[in-house]
Amino acid sequence: MVISVANTPGDESQPEHVLAMLHRLRQRTDADIAPRLTSIPAMRGSFGHMLGTLPPNGARSTVMAAQMGITKQSFGERVRELEQRGWVESVPDPTDNRARLIRRTAEGDRVRKITEREIGSMEREWADQVGRDRYDVFLSVLKELGDGPDGNG
């Protein structure tokens, strides 16, 4: 199969470049995962990402914001929303009493486990659709490209 990088002039069909394909994949991901997470009220992808990337013992907001590629202010807004849901808490950093750590609560751990389980189920369905070997190659290529040419992402 040959995939065109750019449509020919006058071609009004959906573009087939990588950004368009990634956008459609993101739309499919959202459509496939949403019905699986109905037991978690007002769940959003950014909440799942944050819960999934927080280390077990917590992390400083500045570190997490940089890791997620968002501003400290945006991260702070998400923290407030997750605190209201009882999924995270802010606690003193034992290594620096001036700083605070954001960490998951027991409820946040429960939500994270549900989310991870449902993502795994979705991935198994996708692997069944395209075949396990092809899906494994797909994941490997995504990781390699995401890590960048120097392997450090």
Q: Can you tell me about this structure?
A:
This protein is mostly helical. It has a domain at 42-138: Arc Repressor Mutant, subunit A. The protein contains six helices and two strands; from the N terminus they run ααααββαα. A two-stranded antiparallel sheet has the order 1-2. A hairpin with a 2-residue loop joins strand 1 (88-93) and strand 2 (96-104). Helix 3 (61-68) crosses helix 4 (72-85) and helix 5 crosses helix 6. The two termini are 29 Å apart. The model has no long low-confidence stretch (mean pLDDT 88).
Task: Jot down its keywords.
153 residues; mainly alpha; Arc Repressor Mutant, subunit A; two-stranded antiparallel ribbon; 10% strand; globular
Supply Rg. Answer: 19 Å
Order of helices and strands: HHHHEEHH
How many strands appear in the DSSP assignment?
2
In percent, how much strand structure appears in the residues? 5-15%
Helix content: 55-70%
CATH superfamily of the domain at 42-138, by name, is: Winged helix-like DNA-binding domain superfamily/Winged helix DNA-binding domain
**Which structural class fits the helix and strand makeup?**
mainly alpha
Q: Architecture of the domain at 42-138, according to CATH? A: Orthogonal Bundle
The CATH class name of the domain at 42-138 reads: Mainly Alpha
CATH topology of the domain at 42-138: Arc Repressor Mutant, subunit A
Strand order of the largest sheet: 1-2
